[in-house]
Structure formats: C-alpha cells, structure tokens
Design a protein that fits this description.
CATH class of chain B: Mainly Alpha
Helix content of chain B: 55-70%
Strand content of chain A: 15-25%
Structural class of chain A: alpha+beta
Shape of chain A: globular
Order of helices and strands of chain B: HEHHEEH
Number of domains of chain A: 4
Distance between the termini of chain B: 24 Å
Number of domains of chain B: 1
Structural class of chain B: alpha+beta
Distance between the termini of chain A: 60 Å
Largest interface: A-B, 26 and 23 residues
Oligomer: heterodimer
Number of helices of chain A: 28
Helix content of chain A: 40-55%
Radius of gyration of chain B: 15 Å
Number of strands of chain B: 3
CATH architecture of chain B: Orthogonal Bundle
Shape of chain B: globular
Strand order of the largest sheet of chain B: 1-3-2
Largest sheet of chain A: 7 strands, mixed
C-alpha cells in the first residue's frame, strides 16, 4: 500500500525523471535486441528494424506503462480542468449566472455556519481547551436544561476546587458581565469587568502580552490586592496603547486599581457574549460591589467553575467525583444545596446548558439554508443540462474519435466542479461581509458583546459544500450529456418538443417552486407572528417612555444615601419640561430579569408539597401605573405614604384577583409572604389590568406589586412618561443624573428599545427566514424563467409553424405560459403539502398565529402564482415575436 | 468473450515473469529471453506487453526495481521479487496447476 503510494507520488512529482527512466529502459532493451540480431547475422540496418518491429510500437508501450503508474488519471484531470476553464470563459454569461446563484446559496450556508462555529465549534483561545470542563449546579427537578442549571456559589466553587481528585487546577469566574463605573477624568464611564480567581490565567495557560497576569496570592486573601489585567482591545482603544500603562492606576467603582498586565490580543474571554475590558480578582469583589457577603453567601449562584482534567482522567470520572462532593455539600448545607447535583460540559464559547436550545434554533436555520442551496443547485443543474443539449454534437464528435464515456463523463464533471469552486470562492468573499451582519440582529439593549469572524473552519466548510454541490449539480448533466446515440447526434438535428423533452429540468423547477413555497410559508408565518407580537397589549403603553437603569451599589451608597439619591432624582426629573410623570421600578417587565415570590392566602391551600403559591412580583414606586399607562381597575395605586413604618401594601393584577377572590372585591383583603419568623402580612390596596411580564406569548398569570418605598434595593429603573422628542429628553435626564453623581453610569434608552429583548426570538426568526425566503424566491424564479426561455428557443420552429397555420399571439402566449404555470402549480401544491407537515416545528416560535394559518398559506400561493406568471410572460412575449417566414426558411 | 481471453493471457504473463525472477534479479530483456529459451521457443513474450506488465507488477508491490550495470556494463533496470511477490507466485502457481489439471481432465474424457 505504502509502496503504491510512493510510486504514484513519484510519478506525479518526478514526472520528467520517470519519463527519462522509461526511455532509458526501452532504449536498453532495443540495443540488446539489435546486438543479438547482429550476432545472428543481420546487417545493423536490418537488425534495428527487426528489433523495433518485434517491440511493437515504442510509444504505445510507453503509454501503457504510464497508465499502469496511475498518473494518467491525474494528467487527465488537469487536462479536463483546463478544458473546463476554457469552456466557462467561452460562455461568460452562463458562467456568471450559475456562479452568482450558487455563490448566494453557498454564502447563506457559510454565514449560518460561521454563527454555529462561533458558538459550538470554536474552542476558546487557550492552552489545550479539550482538557477543560465547565462545572454547573444541576437542579434535579428543574425543567429545561436552560432553567435547571445554575452557576456555583463562591463557597461551592472553593469546596470543589479544594476537594476534587480529578482536576489539576480549577478556576472560577463571574458568569455575568459585571458593569463597573470607570472614573476617567472625573466622569464615570461604563466598562465591562469580569471577576476571576487568581489561577484564571495560569490555568488557561495565557501569558500577558505586556506585564504579568495574577500571582496566586492575589487570588487568596480578600481585599488587599487591588490589581487588574486589561483586555488588549481596551488598552488599544481607550488608553491609546500606552506602553507605560503597567503600574498606572485605573479607578473602578471608586477603588484605585493598579494595572499589572495586558491580556493577549486573541484572548477575549471564555464565554460568548462576554468580552471583558478588565479582569479583576474575585477577592476584590466585596469592595467593588460593596457587598461584604459576596464570597461567603451560599445562596447566590454566579461563579462558573472550569477545571483542567488531570492526565488520563475522563469527563465521566470527573462527573462522578464532583457528584460525590455535591452530596457532601448537600449534607452539610441542606437548605442551599439539597436540590443540586454537579454537571460537567466540555468548554466552548457557548455555556453548556444553553447549547440544546441554541442548537435547535441553529439546526432550523441550517436546514433552511440547505434548502436554499438546493434551489441554487437545481438552477445550476438546469443550466448545465441545457448546455449539454447544446453540446451534443461536440460530445458526439469526441466520442466518435475514441473518447471513452467515462472520460467524457469525468470531463463534464470536472467542469461543474470547477464551476462550484469558482462559486465557492465568491461565496467565501461574500460570507466575510454577510457573517458580521448577523450581529445587527442583536437588540441594542442586550448587554452582550459578540464577534463573528469566519475562520479556517468556515473556509473548510465552504470548500466542502462547494465541492459537494458541484458533484450534486454536475452528476445528472454529465450522465445525460454523455449518454448518446452517435448516429442520430451526428446527423444534423434540430431540437423540437420543448418542455416535454426536458423532463428532468421540469422536475427540477417543480422542486424549486416547492421548496420556495415551503420557505415562504415559514417566513410568512414568522412575519405575521412578529406583527402580532408587536400589536399585543403588554399591559402598559410603550410609546413616549424613557428608561434609565441605575445601580448605586457600585458607588458604595448606604441605604439612606441611596434612598435620598432616588428621591432627588425623581424630583429633578419631574420638573424637566416635556416630562409628564416619573416613577421607579425593579425589575422592569419583559426584560432579562424577573422575580417571583411565594404567597399564602387565607382560605386557599397550597398545592401538594409546596409552601405557598408562586406569583410573579415587582417593586414599583408611587405613580408607576400612571407613568406606564396601566389602568387601575379597583382601589388605588401606591402613593408616597406607603413607606416604611406604614402597613405593608400590595397591588395585584386581574388574574390574581380572579383566581383567589373570584366572588368578592380583593381590595382590603390580606395575604402573607415568607414563612416562620420572616412571615409578613400585606394588605391589598388595588387591582390593575393584566399584563405581560416575562414573554409576550405568555398566558395571563397572577402578579403582585410591592411598594418600593417599603423595601430598599440599590438597583432601580427610572421611568419617565414624556410628551416630546425622546433624544433631547434623554440628554436632559443624563444631565440630572450626572449632576447628582458624576461617577454614576446609567443605561439610558426608550421603553421600545427595552422591548426589543422580548421581541428578539420572533424578530430574528422572521428576519432570517424572510431573507432566505426571498433569496429562494429569486433563485426559483430564475430557474423557472430560464427553463421557459430555453423551451421557447428550442421550439422556435414549432411556434413558427403554428403561427404560419394561423395561431395568434394569444394562442402562443397561452401555450408557453401554460407550460410554466403547470409546473408552478404542481410545485406550489407539493410545497404547501410539505409546509402543513413541517411548520408545526415552528409553533414554539409563533405568537398568535396557527402553524397552518390559512391567510398566510393563501397569500403566499397567490403571490407565487402572480410572480411566476410574470416570470413566464417575459420569455413568452419573445415567442410571439417569432416571424414564421424567417424560421421556416432557415431550415 | 474477448475480455476473458486477454485476462487469461495477462495472468499467465504475470506468472511467468514472477517465476523467472525467482532465480534472481534481472532486467526486462533478459526476462523475455529466458522465457523464450526455457519454453524452447514455444512461448514468445511480446515486448509490447512485457513492460506494461513489469510496471503493473511493480505498482502492485510484487516486484521492486533498481538501476544496475548490465552484463556488458551498460545501465539497465533490474527487477527483483519482493516478499509479497513470492507469496503471489506460489498462489498463482497453485491456481495455474489446478486450472491446467482441470482442463487436462476434460480433454482426456472426450
């Protein structure tokens, strides 16, 4: 086997040497033969002649010997490719159409793949990423993978780190981006930070580009090592790549940190969506967050643990060992840990528990773009088939001259592979531009940082699908084109019979229209769902509302300072001209965060095994419902009197009133929250209209509002109802905040922008499906129109005769368009039938529209018929221009 | 019909070449001469098929080649049997014996 390979390679790369050797071998033989012949008594002339005659054709023998070496195939391949390139150059418009349509299809695939690559395939830029495992808490009864996995608490991380037997080292870091206020020349600016364990960089094997990374003692003792490592991008963009940055001071949340190093350029963090500007030791967390219990609290889950496996340990062994520790933790701290197992995942940029959901979504997209590619392939096949028919005579001549069918087959196939590679090249260039466009779909309000850069994996994928596509669209034409009856082909033959003669092409068009209508129905459903979601009543008004997310904890405010700050802010904002009403809320509905609480109500027994009823909850300030435009149905909303020291009050929504007080007015009734010593009684003072709290698609669910003035949190969202120009008012609000504290960095925006998050799934699906659906439509129409045009050109003579016999323009139009529309209708029928079966996979993403929505189905059908008519009409018009005299004379 | 005949001849030539090389390395011309001499001029090897056969056997790894000096001191390509070739030779010999034996049996009966 090896020997064979060596010979072949030698044959390929040392071709001239091999040729010389063959020459020499043959020459030696002839000379010996001549000597022998002379010895037998021939004259030298006779001897030479006899020798050559007995050898039987020197060149033929050489040729056969070459064949044996297996080099012939490669030589021929080269010839075929050169010939293919010549043919493609000779036919530039044909080449351009196929390359363009294939490139669009291929690029759609490569773009989606680059997204998949970024999330699932690319390991982080660290040393031996395959040895790394993510460690998560897994809640045994916790619903979906996304909901049942939680990051570790800091004490859990420490326990796992110090007691496991399977990791050579285990690091931990903050799983959410931490927003810190960087005081730059007296003004606050928001930076993204990440709290990390001291061994973070050493465990990942990352060396600083400048300076050093953390030393191990900087990760052990809380509060005494104010040092940071900066990201390369932050150093370049914000600090002007200052070479003397090491040792300088940056002030974060009011604490001075000295810069000890710059991370390497290619390291942007371990998680997708989080690209920290600064890395801070976890040990400094209690200082910067002003939360002294940050590192000792067992109920806060925020640390993502990552371990490096010892040599020879498998992830199954690691999981077993960690679960042993999880059980020890559960025994020691039943309240916090009883419900948790440990779960491990290999490290990718997308956190393990999210992979299932995002994976399903990505597969849907991959299927869609694969369908688009199939339409493009069908176009290419169709064009090549038309070509093959046009080239029958050429093929027949070559075949008559002795070219074998397999040789002709290979040659035709080489041409399509060349075409595919050309398209792949264009697609790659296109993908470089389209892949970053995916990021535009991310709502601005989502605090994720993301980069999509097609790398060598995407390149390999593009190359692979290009080659596969080339084989796919080239096989049928190559098969068809080389299968011919020599005699009939060589005789002068004029095509007739039109579409019936190109049954395969007709089939392709039917397939294209079918796939296209399937995709269009899909995108139509998503679009309708998006429109529905936009028009759904969230229980408050969306227009003309400004919001500012604030967190004073980062600046070390005490409770009294914080309360004073918010009071002042409300007073100052109220008097800005154009502001009608102001309030506070936490957390805002339909955002990323949501909270719930367990309540007990007299006369209602909680479900089996539960301590009470779980209801959604938020804290709101006075005038919240007025500011948000939510109707108060009964009672009143909170006022400034509902503060600490007065009886605890609550407002509930319609649904909660209906469920627990079905036949009486709940205003004045009571409920309790918490249990045992912490039990607190609340009096219901009002009932408000139902709203949407977590997602726009949810059913009405019981919800409860608490008065903000009766509990304090440092984190609030300021909401202002305004009458005019949001942009101008945004700066005014910003000015008031800065006036109160220049270091406080708010996230300002409109309520509409905030809602982008809730609309995100519907929006991204309808945008992507819409784009791909339109692409599919354009490609399918090109196919249909091309086929009709071809059929017309083949039937010129027939049409001429018909017209000579008295057929009018209408008859010709009917004839040609009828053909095209028949195919279209068959295609649409097949496509809709497939859609009925397949769209239910979309139903999870659809809001307020059935997966077999008759409106969408009929609109798409009419749309397709209309556009297909147009696509047929253009070539049909040309058919009517046929002059019978010219056509009949030319034969 | 024609195809089986060529196969048969080709197979026979391979066997003869391998057998000739069993007695030691030699070059193409010598192989042709020896087959002719030993078969007492009954079998004549067409050079037209000898060289392709040699290259094919080499490609299959049954023989190996190297350049050496011929008996009259000229540069010639010498072929020798490889271990795989030796195995192939005994296998083909066995097949040939069975084949001719069978043909012989049939010829005797009629």
């Amino acid at each position: 086997m090896l020997n064979k390979l060596r010979l072949r390679l030698r044959a390929l790369f040392f071709k001239s040497k091999m040729e010389e050797e063959l020459d020499e071998e043959v020459r030696f033989h002839l000379e010996r033969e001549i000597e022998e012949n002379i010895a037998r008594g021939m004259t030298p002339e006779e001897a030479r002649y006899a020798a050559i005659r007995s050898f039987g054709g020197v060149e033929r023998v050489k040729e056969e010997s070459r064949d044996v070496r297996g080099i012939r195939l490669l030589e021929e391949l080269w010839q075929d490719l050169r010939f293919g390139a010549r043919m493609l150059r000779k036919n530039p418009s044909f080449t351009a159409i196929v390359v363009l349509s294939m490139a669009l299809g291929l690029s759609a695939n490569a773009t989606i793949f680059s997204f998949v690559n970024e999330l699932f395939l690319r390991p982080p830029a660290v040393e031996q990423p395959n040895q790394l495992l993510e460690v998560w808490d897994h809640q045994r009864q916790g619903g979906s993978s996304f909901e049942s996995h939680h990051p570790l608490s800091y004490p859990e991380y420490e326990y796992y780190r110090d007691h496991n037997q399977v990791f050579s080292e285990m690091l931990g870091f903050d799983s959410d981006p931490a927003f810190l206020s960087w005081s730059r020349r007296g003004q606050g600016e928001m930076v993204q930070g990440q709290y990390i364990s001291g061994n973070f960089f050493s465990c990942l094997g990352i060396k600083a580009a400048l300076g050093r990374t953390f030393a191990s003692e900087e990760g052990r003792t809380p509060g005494i090592h104010p040092v940071v490592v900066l990201s390369h991008a932050f150093w370049q963009q914000q600090l002007g790549a200052d070479p003397n940055v090491i040792g300088s001071i940056v002030t974060l949340n009011g604490i001075s940190f000295s810069v000890i190093g710059i991370a390497p350029k290619d390291f942007v963090g371990l998680m997708v969506g989080v690209m920290p500007d600064v890395w801070i030791p976890l040990m400094m967390g209690p200082q910067t967050t002003h939360d002294s219990a940050l590192l000792t609290r067992r109920s806060g889950h925020w640390i993502l643990g990552i371990g490096r496996l010892k040599p020879g340990i498998t992830s199954i062994q690691a999981s077993a060992d960690l679960n042993l520790l999880a059980r020890q933790l559960a025994q020691a701290f039943p309240k916090e840990n009883e419900m948790y197992d440990a779960a491990v995942f290999p490290v990718r940029l997308l956190p393990g528990p999210a992979r299932g959901f995002v994976g399903a979504f990505s597969s849907l997209l991959m299927v869609v773009v694969a369908l688009v590619l199939m339409i493009a392939c069908a176009n290419a096949t169709s064009y090549l088939l038309a070509q093959a028919t046009a080239r029958r005579r050429e093929i027949a001549v070559r075949s008559a001259l002795g070219a074998s069918r397999s040789r002709l087959f290979r040659q035709t196939l080489a041409e399509s592979v060349l075409l595919a590679c050309l398209s792949g090249g264009v697609a790659w260039a296109l993908t470089k531009c389209t892949a970053p466009l995916l990021l535009l779909l991310k709502p601005q309000a989502l605090p994720l940082r993301f980069a999509i850069s097609p790398d060598y994996r995407v390149f390999g994928f593009t190359l692979l699908i290009s080659l596969l596509a080339g084989l796919l669209f080239g096989l049928a034409p190559a098969w068809r084109g080389t299968k011919l009856d020599l005699v009939t082909s060589l005789k002068y033959e004029m095509g007739s019979g039109g579409i019936r003669k190109s049954r395969l092409r007709s089939l392709l068009v039917v397939g294209q229209v079918a796939i296209c209508s399937l995709l269009l129905v899909g995108s139509g459903l998503c679009l309708r769902s998006l429109l529905n979601a936009r028009s759904v009543d969230p229980g408050f008004e969306i227009e003309n509302r400004l919001i500012a997310n604030l967190n004073v904890s980062s600046l070390g405010y005490s409770e009294a300072q914080g309360k004073a700050f918010y009071d002042n802010l409300i007073e100052r904002t109220k008097v800005i001209p154009g502001v009608e009403s102001v309030s506070l809320a936490n957390p805002l509905p339909l955002g990323m965060a949501s909270s719930s609480v367990t309540v007990n109500i007299e006369g209602h027994r909680p479900p089996q095994g539960e301590k009470g009823f779980g209801v959604g909850v938020m804290r709101v300030g006075p005038d919240y419902f007025k500011t948000m435009g939510t109707t108060v149905l009964r009672g009143r909303e909170f006022s400034s009197h509902d503060a600490v020291g007065t009886p605890q009050v609550a407002v509930i929504n319609e649904e909660m009133a209906r469920r627990f007080w079905p036949d009486r007015d709940p205003v004045g009734a009571g409920l309790t929250m918490g249990s045992g010593k912490e039990e607190q009684r609340y009096e219901i003072v009002g009932v408000v209209k139902n709203g949407k709290y977590r997602t726009l698609g949810e059913r009405p669910s019981p919800f409860l509002y608490q008065s903000m003035l009766q509990t304090y949190t440092p984190k609030e969202t300021l909401i202002a109802k305004i009458s005019s120009n949001p942009a101008l008012l945004l700066t005014a609000v910003q000015r008031e905040i800065s006036a109160l504290d220049p270091n406080l960095v708010p996230q300002l925006g409109t309520l509409q922008e905030h809602l982008a998050f809730a609309l995100f799934p519907a929006r991204i699906t309808s945008v992507l499906l819409g784009v791909f659906g339109l692409l599919a439509l354009a490609l399918a129409l090109a196919g249909l129109s091309g086929l009709i045009a071809y059929s017309v050109s083949q039937r010129t003579r027939e049409i001429g005769i018909r017209m000579a016999l008295g057929a009018g323009t209408r008859d010709v139009l009917k004839l040609v368009i009828g053909e095209g529309m028949l195919l279209t209708l068959i295609g649409i029928t097949a496509g809709l039938a497939a859609a009925v079966g397949l769209t239910r996979f979309l139903s999870g993403l659809l809001y307020g529209v059935s997966a077999v929505d008759p409106v969408t189905f009929s609109v798409i059908t009419l749309l397709l018929i209309g556009i297909a008519l147009l696509a047929c009409w253009i070539p049909a018009r040309r058919a009517t221009k046929v002059d019978p005299m010219i056509v009949l004379r030319s034969e | 019909m024609k195809k089986t005949q060529t196969d048969l001849l080709q197979g026979t030539l391979d066997l003869l070449v391998l057998k000739t090389l069993q007695s030691g390395p030699t070059h193409g011309w010598d192989i042709a001469q020896r087959i002719q001499q030993i078969s007492q001029d009954v079998l004549r090897v067409g050079q037209g098929s000898l060289y392709p056969a040699l290259h094919r056997l080499e490609a299959q790894g049954w023989i190996a080649s190297e350049w050496g000096a011929s008996e009259n001191n000229r540069k010639a390509k010498y072929y020798k049997l490889t271990a795989a070739g030796r195995k192939q030779l005994s296998a083909e010999t066995e097949t040939w014996r069975r084949f001719t034996g069978a043909v012989e049996l049939i010829l005797k009966t009629s």
